[in-house]
Design brief:
The protein is built from nine helices and 20 strands. With 503 residues, the protein is of the alpha+beta class. It has a domain of 176 residues: Transcription factor, T-box (Immunoglobulin-like). The protein binds a DNA duplex (22 and 22 nucleotides) through β3, α4 and α6.
DNA sequence: TCCCCTGGCACATTTGAATCGC
DNA sequence: AGCGATTCAAATGTGCCAGGGG
């Protein structure tokens, strides 16, 4: 009841929306690298309307915006063919999760640590994307259940999609405008500004197709040439940063939209210039299983923050009360972002926008199932990749799970309740309970809770923290393996018909 | 030949340990 | 001894570029 109301009342505003719009209008591009690259602008939101005392889990995922592959021709993005098979979808759980509504509302919620990669075998838990494809980030707000997990029968959640955050993944920037916007706005790229900062812009303003070569560029070229002439230096050690991320893996494979199959990104961007926010809410009613997202681990940068003035440092004692619950950071004082993967046949979402949301008190949060603007995208058969988990200092996670039949049925909607450890273990997709309910009706067809298996993921309550517990990839008896520095789960995520079977 | 992708580079920012002073 | 401020080196995050591969 209150959870429902809370979810309904939650409002999310995209931070630095104007900046996002600038990129959006130029056709946002995000670099993806093997080691993982952050997004810029970073995904930050301001959340309001939460119940201050209720605990929520905030997570994001990035789903295909359509099923096309793009190429940059004639200074614009054009469809270049059909999209490649979707990468294993992964969820990025905000490191502060679960936290009270008061905590989330107190400060900006930042997902700036999220990284994108094109490494299909990425072991760090970064979100895997295909280059030259269009994607749409989404924010999910999930009400944590009594065990600080989600997926139980009363778990409610909603999804927010800001169209201006859509982007095309690239391995190197294609559009000079984007490059310049990045350089001008990203502090880390200051080195490319310099006094000749305006070179490119000036050249563009002067109507030149190609930018004036800046001194920086000349310098780099000289240096580079020199290096090549003097012989390749010894191969530098690639210092990978085993960013400790726990991950659940799921198959996304569902384009957010197919509405503009022939439109280059620019067109889409233009048409979505107005504030548009897809807003979906869903409440699990009869899904009596808990989703234990045991991805917690110390995260020194407890604050999902930047230097924004509205940011507050989290209290050291934050969440101490959760230490004895599943999906909580028992005894953890710092956190690490968590990546979850699962089979996601979803894409269900309604349309709306931030403002609309804010001004639409009547917006029904339980609309996910009925609002499916994004056509389903066949992901059936997409196999899981073995995913080495990285989950440092994660609390003991003992997934007590049912053994659902693992047939995956593409569905145009996400169902956060389908995390299932047993499937993880088997590397099989999970079928979630059919969360097709679009209202608050008390009865929603769904899987029955299996006796003795209240949660998909269940972190032993009150168990001491075992930072370096070692889990194997496919535990024999329903326990997930965690390996230092982090562990990841491969879980199925689907809202398709669930077929839970007792084993 | 073209289109992407990769790895290495320089530069800037961020982080965290060490140091210092009160 | 404890605390806060400062310093500094290492780690990390950027875009650029040449070269390589399909």
């Amino acid at each position: 009841m209150d959870s429902q109301q809370n979810i309904e009342n939650i409002k999310v505003v995209l931070h630095e929306r104007e900046l996002w719009k600038k990129f959006h209008e130029a056709g946002t591009e995000m670099i993806i690298t093997k080691a993982g690259r952050r997004m810029f602008p970073s995904y930050k939101v301001k959340v309001t309307g939460m119940n201050p005392k209720t605990k929520y889990i905030l997570l994001t995922d990035i789903v295909p915006a359509d099923d096309h592959r793009y190429k940059f021709c004639d200074n614009k993005w054009m469809v270049a063919g059909k999209a490649e098979p979707a990468m294993p979808g992964r969820l990025y759980v905000h490191p502060d999760s679960p936290a009270t509504g008061a905590h989330w509302m107190r400060q900006l919620v930042s997902f700036q640590k999220l990284k994108l990669t094109n490494n299909h075998l990425d072991p760090f838990g970064h979100i895997i994307l295909n280059s030259m494809h269009k994607y749409q980030p989404r924010l999910h707000i999930v009400k944590a259940d009594e065990n600080n997990a989600f997926g139980s029968k009363n778990t409610a959640y909603c999804t927010h999609v800001f169209h201006e955050t859509a982007f095309i993944s690239v391995t190197s920037y294609q559009n000079h405008k984007i490059t310049q916007l990045k350089i001008e706005n990203n502090p880390f790229a200051k080195g490319f500004r310099g006094s000749e900062e305006g070179d490119l812009r000036v050249s563009r303003l002067q109507g030149k197709d190609y930018p004036v070569i800046s001194k920086n560029i000349v310098r780099q070229r000289l240096i580079s040439s020199h290096n090549h002439l003097t012989g390749k230096l010894g191969a530098g050690v690639l210092t990978g940063h085993p960013q400790v991320l726990s991950s659940y893996q799921y198959e996304t494979g569902v384009p957010l939209s197919n509405r503009d199959p022939q439109d280059p990104l620019s067109n889409h961007l233009t048409q979505t210039r107005d504030p548009s926010l897809l807003y979906h809410c869903f409440k699990h009613r009869d899904n009596s299983r808990h989703l234990e997202l045991g991805c917690k681990r110390p995260y020194l940068e407890a604050t999902p923050v930047s230097s924004e003035e509205h940011y507050f440092r989290p209290t050291p004692s934050y969440e101490s009360s959760l230490l004895s619950h599943p999906y909580c950071t028992e005894g953890i004082t710092s956190r690490e972002p968590c990546m979850y993967s699962s089979v996601d046949t979803e894409s269900g979402s309604g349309t709306g926008d931030t403002e609309d949301l804010a001004n639409s008190p009547s917006l029904n949060c339980n609309m996910w199932a009925t609002m499916q603007p994004y056509p389903c995208y066949g992901v059936e058969g997409v196999s899981y990749q073995p995913f080495t988990a990285h989950f440092t200092n994660a609390g003991p996670v003992t997934p007590v799970v049912p053994h659902p039949s693992s047939s995956m049925v593409p569905r145009p909607q996400a169902d956060l309740s389908v995390y299932n450890a047993s499937s993880v273990q088997r590397g099989l997709p999970i079928i979630s309970p059919s969360s097709s309910s679009s209202s608050c009706s008390p009865v929603i067809p769904g899987p029955r809770e299996r006796p003795g298996h209240p949660s998909l993921y269940h972190k032993k309550t009150g168990s001491p923290l075992h930072p370096h517990r070692d889990f194997t990839a496919y535990p024999a008896q329903g326990t997930l393996s965690i390996r230092d520095p982090a562990y990841q789960y491969q879980v199925g995520l689907s809202s398709a018909g669930t077929h839970w079977t007792d084993s």
